[in-house]
Amino acid sequence: ALFAMGRLPGWISHWREMNHDPATKIGRPQQLYIGSQQRDI
C-alpha cells in the first residue's frame, strides 16, 4: 500500500496528460507483427 501511495500522483498525472491531449499517443503505440524474416544459416 505504501508503494502505491508514493507512485499514485505520478500515475494520475500521466493518465491526465494522456487524456488531456488525444493527439499524443505515446502511452502504448500500436505494433504490427509481420512475422519472422528469412535468414540464411
Quick overview of this protein structure:
The chain is mostly helical and 41 residues long. 46% of the residues lie in helices and 0% in strands.
Name its key features.
41 residues; mainly alpha
Chain-wise SSE layout:
Elements: H1 2-20
Portion of residues within helices: 40-55%
Structure class: mainly alpha
Q: Outline the biggest β-sheet.
A: none
Low-confidence parts lasting 5 or more residues at pLDDT below 50? none
3D shape: elongated
The fraction of residues in strands falls at under 5%
Q: How many helices does DSSP assign?
A: 1
Distance between the termini: 51 Å
Mean of pLDDT: 82
Q: Output the helix-strand order.
A: H
**Strand segment tally:** 0
Characterization of the model:
It is built from 1 helix and no strands. The relative contact order is 0.10. The longest helix is centred in the first third of the chain and has 19 residues, at 2-20. By secondary structure, it is mainly alpha-helical. It has one helix spanning 2-20.
